[in-house]
Amino acid sequence: MRARQVAVATRETLTRLLGLSTGTALRLPDRLPDLPAVPRDLADVEAIALRERLDIQASRLQAAHTATSLGLTRTTRFINVLDLDYVRNSQSGQTTAPGYAITLELPLFDWGTARVAKAEALYMQAVDKVAQAAIDARSEARQSYSDYRSAYDLARHYRDEVIPLRKKISDETMLRYNGMLVSVFELLTDAREQATAVNATIAAQKDFWLAHTNLEAALGGRLPPAPKEQP
Question: How confident is the model at residue 28 (pLDDT cuts 50, 70, 90)?
Answer without folding.
Answer: confident
